[in-house]
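Job type: complex structure
Entries:
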Amino acid sequence: MAETMILIPGRTTKQGVGLLESKFKKQYRDATTTVEINVEDMARLGLKDGCKVKLRSANGVTTVKCTGRKTEDLPPGVLFIAYGPPTSKLMGTDTGASGMPLSKHLEVELESVN
Amino acid sequence: MGAATKAKSEANIKTVENATCTFCGCLCDDMVLTVDMDAKKITKAKNACVLGKALFLSHEEEDRPFALIDGKPATLKEGVEEAAQILANARFPMFYGMSDTTCEAQRQNVALVDMVGGTIDSTTSVCHGPTGMALQGVGESTATLGEIKNRADLVIYWGGNPAESLPRHFARYAVTAKGMYTPNRKKDRTIVNVDVRRTKSVPVADIFIQVKIGADFELLWALRALVKGRHVDPNIEKRTGVSLETMKDLVERMKNCRYGVLFFGMGLSMTRGRHFNSAAILSLASDLNEYTHFIATPMRGHGNVAGADIVVSWQTGYPFGVNFSRGYPKFNPGEFTATDMFARGDADAGLILASDPGSNFTQAAIDHMKKIPMIVLDPKLTHTAKLARVAFTTSHYGINTGGTAYRSDGVPIELRPCLDSKYPSDEEVIRAIYKRVEQLLKTRKKTKGANNKRRKAA
C-alpha cells in the first residue's frame, strides 16, 4: 500500500565524488538511486536495506533502493535522496515565477515493489 | 592570492603551489598539486578535501572527439559552423549554465547572447536565484569569509549541509579556523545548526535546532518578532517544531554576540517559500544590526556560480534570467529562467555552457531539450551532451585553463592551471562561435538589404 511522505533531495559527498568520476558509472548511479527512510517507517512498511521502492509525485514516478536512517537523524514521514536523474522525474514545472522548481519539499507516495 | 605559483621540474614531476580547487564555492586556493607531466596525471593534492581530491586525482583527459554533431565525431571547425548556424537561425535561444567555467568565458557568452538577441540564465536560478531576488527587495548585510573567520563568534548554519557540499567551510572559514579575534578557534565560537534533519554538519554544532519541514519562514519570522521585542504565542511550537524557550535562547545569543553570521543553504531557497525564506533570513540579519554586527550570506555550491551572477550583473545589470529580444536586457525570473523556458517549450535552441541540466532539470524541461537543437560545452560526457545536436569537448577550468573565478563571498580568485590540454577552453569555443555568427548575421543583413532594393526597383 502506498504511503504519502515528504522527499528532500540534496547534495551528498558520494554523489559529488561520483559525478567527478562519471555520471554514467556505478558510484554516481548508486548515490542518486538510494533513498533514505526512517527506520520506523521501514519496519512498518516491511522494508529492509536494499529493497526497491517506487516514489510517485504528481509529476512522475521513479524506482530506487532504500536504506534506513535513525529517527533522531531523519524524522518519520521524511525521505532523503541525493540529487540526480531520478529526482528530475519527480519535480514539478511550476516555479512560482522564481525560476526555481520546488525541489526540496516534494510530496511523494512511497510503495514497495518487492 | 598568496605567493606566485612555484613550479619545479624533477624527473618530469611538477609541483604547483597555491592552486585553486574549483569544485565548490569555497574555491580553496591553497592546493599543493604534484603533477606527473609524463602521465599527465595529478598524483597528489595536498590540502584538498574529499571532493577536491576526487576532482584532481580523477582528472583524466578523455580521448573524445573535439566535437560531436548528432553523436558523430566532427572537427572543431565543423562543430563551430553547426553551432553558429543553429544560433543564427534561432528565434528564441536559451543560453544556460556557466557555473563551472571562467569569468572570461562567461563574459564572452553574454556578448554572444546579446548579439543574437537570446536569453541568458545561470545555474543560480535553480540554486540561490530566489536569494538574488530577495536581496534586491530587502538588501544584504554581508562580509567576506576572511572577515567572518577573523571576527565571528556566533555562527549559524541554516538549511545547508557544508560537511558534505563545502567540506572545508568549517576548517577554513567558520568553525575551527584560527582568526584574529578567534585565536582559540571553535572555543571562541558558538555554532548553531538549524535544519529539518540531522545532517553530517550537525555534530560540529553546539546547538541543533530541528525545524519542521516547510516551517523555516514561520521560525524566521517568529525570531524577527522576538528580536523586536514583540509577543510570540507559545503555540508557535506546534507550527515550527521549535519551542518558544529555544527561540528566546537563540535570540538572546544573537543579540549579545560580538559578531554573528547566518550562513544559509538551499534548504531555504529550494523549498516552500523560496525567496520569502531568503528575504526573511536577510531581514533577520538586518534587524540584529540594531544590537550587534550581524551578517547573512548564502552558501554557494558550484565553483564559479557566484562569478556567473557577478559577470552577468556587470554586463546586463541583472544577475540571471535576462532576455535580449528587444535589443536591451530585461530581467524576469519565471519568464526568462531556463527551467521555465524549456518546460513551457518557449526556447527553440539552447547553448549549455559547463552545466548538465539534462540530469537535474524537471522532466518536462528535459523532454523539450530533446526536441530542439542544443549546443553543449563540457570537458566530460554528460546527460545534456548526449541529447545535444552539437557537443564540444573543452578543457577543464582550473586544471587546464587559467582565468578568474569568484568565491561564494564575491572575492575573485586567480586560477593556476597545472596541465595542458589538447582541447580548447570554453572561452575559445564561444569566441569562435561568436565570430562565425557575426559573419552569418552580417551576410544575412546584406542579403536582406539587397532584396529590399530589388523589390523597390521592381
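Summary: The domain at 3-112 of chain A is CATH 2.40.40.20 (Barwin-like endoglucanases). The helical segments of chain A are 13-21, 26-32, 39-45, 85-90.
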